[in-house]
Write a structure and sequence with these properties.
Unchr_phage_tail-like, alpha+beta, 6-blade_b-propeller_TolB-like, Tail_protein_I, 4 domains, Methylamine Dehydrogenase, Chain H, about 15% helix, six-stranded antiparallel beta sheet, 42 strands, seven-stranded antiparallel beta sheet, Phage tail-like protein, about 725 residues, 10 helices
């Protein structure tokens, strides 16, 4: 039986950056044509003299500061529907009361009171609004739902930009220049600014607390500093920025002058310049991040979403791969597989270069970075001296004409499966290696487009060994070199297909392993042990249930068996409580119609003068006398998870039982199912839901009030992150 075939690959941001790029861009782990500079919306306007701020809360309400009017406005963004014809657009509501009318005569003040001038805005995770005043060294903290002022924090200087990360808020201040950290019920803690940051004005924070400061905003010398360290990044004419965590990287959206596009930068191992956003009518005073992750800015006609700009790609580009080592002289290479997306109007070509000896003295192709990474030296691959060499210039073909064809059956089984949703966009292209035998191989891809679309390549893989079918035929078929080369390429698809079938046959034992079997064969595998899988169960739970099916069926219907079954499906700790064990703990009222017997000769309740109770129906007897137990899942159960759990218990609980399912609801409430150490635990509770008129009962399943952040034992400190009251 032949051994599995080996592949060499170029995939991932690190390996792509070690190639030679000529007119290409690397976005994430995908290489494509670089785009030209995108023009903005009309003429570029000046930077406004007075900045402002926008901020969203979790209920999708937009707050806007207007320091020139001394006013703070709120817009119900979620209620506005710009596509609803005939419906007037929502208007901002002023939150600051107008100044009172002044009395005349002797009681008139010498100088009329000036209204506060709100500038910086931020909303923390508890929905509390922080307002930095442009004319006073303080930050005001409001509870918008309660319409009251919670706190007033004094700062060393006049606050500028604010940003929230969880319950913490970070504020820049001027006169003197500095950075502080504060919270609604805590103190003010100074933090150091990066070296060289002399005129900070805007700050952005991710949800996990990564901070970025914009220095010299609105000027050609504007630059952004990361508080975690590193060199600053020049951002000419930047006026504002927001930061959001994307996988392991941070994406910055940078607003510039009115009429210019918003730049997008990804900071991280797979970072670089991203396609820009277009902001038609931007007023130049600030941007904000919506709860669903989009960018909002203000115009003369109200708030608008920034949209992806229409890119103009280059017509042609090329990427040259580094040297691949076959580890054997005279190596005859197999097939090349390209994971790519080639839309209509685009074209992708392949060229192969081989050599048996390393060429040391000849000039090689220059290792130029992708266009969108050229301005950022930090995006260069680590240890570039360890990168394999690029091909000599003398061997590089001037014309790349090797075509690729699409595989009808997808990528070979040896390759990792595409991510969910990517199987439609990216396909696997295949071509034979058209190069002389040699130990070393270089691959070159030619990208072509019509400036509106671009081919995209995610991975490049090559089969290290070609098939040996030609050696098994009579030597007369290999006497002519041209005919032998054609016959070898002609047999390659058939040899590859047979090799893949062979590899599947060798790996068929994996189908019997729940941990490694494909997801589509799990129901078939579960049928071997008599287990019917629910498609609503998570894939990991289905695999583990099959693996533990023998033990689960052995203890089916028992407390350990049901507990393990529920924990696997929900992914949370479960507790099963039998009702008879709660006697004396106010488990519940007695049945109003049932008889109570005290001792052997005393009957309390029942009809006087009759010794026998009337016969009840089977349903009534089951309702009254069934063995009852409660399942307490220490997690928030949404409607779908609760339905899945009830269906599971309907099948696997004992037939003589009645079950009640409970989850972590709105927290611990005394007198409403609270048993310390049994149905309660310390930890974050679920979000409080709204009360629906006509569908809720006060005092039973609903209470009136507003939720507030609780006290975290072991992590909260009185006077800083927690308070009594």
């Amino acid at each position: 039986m032949p051994a599995p075939r080996a592949f060499l690959h170029i995939a991932g941001p690190d390996l792509w950056r070690r190639c030679g790029h000529d007119g290409t861009a690397l976005v994430g782990d995908v290489v494509g044509l670089a785009w030209e500079d995108v023009p903005g919306d009309g003429a570029v306007g000046p930077v406004p003299a007075l900045a402002a701020a926008l901020a969203f809360d979790a209920r999708c309400r937009l707050y806007r500061s207007r320091p020139e009017l001394g006013q703070l406005e709120r817009l119900r963004w979620a209620a506005a529907d710009p596509l609803a014809g005939g419906v007037p657009a929502a208007e901002p509501v002023a939150l600051f009361a107008p100044p009172p009318e002044l009395l005349g005569g002797d009681f008139a003040p010498l100088a009329p009171p000036t209204p506060p001038a709100p500038l910086g805005l931020a909303v923390d995770a508890a929905g509390q609004l922080f307002v930095g005043l442009a004319d006073a060294p303080c930050v005001l903290v409001y509870a918008p739902d309660e319409r009251r002022l919670l706190a007033r924090h004094a700062l060393p200087g006049r606050p500028l930009g604010l940003a929230a990360a969880g319950l913490a808020v970070y504020a820049l201040h001027a006169g003197p220049v500095g950075l502080v950290r504060l919270s609604a019920h805590g103190g003010v803690q100074p933090l150091p600014l990066p070296a060289g940051c002399s005129a900070p004005s805007r700050i952005a924070a991710t949800a996990d607390g990564a901070l970025f400061v914009l220095d010299a905003a609105g000027t050609e010398a504007a630059q952004v500093f990361a508080l975690a360290g590193g060199a600053p990044r020049a951002l000419p004419w930047a006026t504002d920025l927001v930061a959001v965590r994307v996988d392991d990287a941070v994406e910055l959206t940078v607003a510039r002058r009115p009429g210019e596009t918003f730049r997008r930068l990804r900071l991280g191992a797979d970072g670089g310049e991203q396609p820009p956003l277009k902001a038609r009518g931007y007023d130049g005073r600030g941007i904000a991040l919506t709860p669903d992750g989009r960018i909002v800015y203000w115009t003369a006609r109200g708030p608008r979403h920034a949209v992806p700009a229409r890119l103009v790609y280059r017509a042609q580009a090329r990427v040259v791969g580094f040297r691949l080592d076959g580890e054997r002289y005279g190596q005859r290479w197999g097939r090349v597989f390209v994971e790519a997306c080639v839309p209509a109007g685009a074209r992708l070509s392949l060229a192969c270069i081989s050599a048996d000896e390393p060429i040391e003295d000849a000039p090689t192709v220059e290792r130029t970075p992708p266009v969108n990474l050229a301005d950022d030296p930090s995006r260069l691959p680590p240890h570039p001296e360890a990168s394999p060499p690029l091909p000599p210039l003398a061997l590089l073909p001037t014309q790349v004409g090797g075509l690729l064809h699409r595989r009808a059956d997808g990528p070979p089984d040896a390759f990792p499966p595409p991510a969910e949703g990517e199987a439609v966009r990216f396909v696997t292209l295949e071509a034979p290696v058209r190069a002389a035998p040699g130990r070393f191989l270089w691959l070159s891809l030619q990208f072509e487009g019509d400036t509106r679309v671009t081919p995209r390549v995610r991975a490049l893989r090559v089969e290290r060994d070609a098939h040996d079918w030609l050696e098994r035929l009579p030597r007369v078929f290999a006497e002519d070199a041209v005919a032998a080369d054609f016959l070898r390429r002609h047999l390659a698809p058939f040899a590859g297909l047979l090799g893949e079938v062979d590899a599947r046959a060798q790996a068929r034992h994996a189908l019997l392993d729940p941990a490694g079997a494909p997801e589509e064969v799990l129901p078939w595998l579960a049928s071997f042990v008599g287990l019917v899988l629910d498609e609503r169960w998570p894939p990991a739970a289905r695999r583990q249930l099959i693996a533990e099916a023998d033990w689960l069926f052995r203890y089916r219907g028992t407390l350990p068996g049901l507990t393990r079954f529920i924990e696997l499906v929900t992914g949370s700790r479960a507790l099963l409580v039998e009702q008879f064990r709660l006697r004396g703990l106010a488990a519940g009222p007695l049945d109003a119609e049932g008889g109570a017997v005290l001792g052997a000769g005393l009957r309390v309740g029942g009809a006087i003068g009759r010794s026998a109770q009337p016969q009840a129906g089977a349903a009534e007897v089951y309702r009254r006398d069934a063995h009852r137990f409660t399942v307490i899942v220490q997690a928030w159960l949404d409607a779908e998870t609760a339905a899945v759990l009830r269906d599971l218990l309907e099948v696997h609980r004992p037939a003589h039982t009645v079950v009640t399912v409970c989850g972590v609801a709105g927290g611990m409430r005394v007198g409403v199912g609270l048993h310390l150490g049994l149905s309660s635990l310390l930890g974050p509770g679920a979000a409080w839901g709204g009360l629906v008129l006509g569908a809720a009962t006060l005092g039973r399943d609903r209470v009136l009030g507003r939720p507030r952040p609780g006290f975290d034992p072991g992590a909260s400190r009185l006077g800083e992150t927690g308070h009594v009251g």
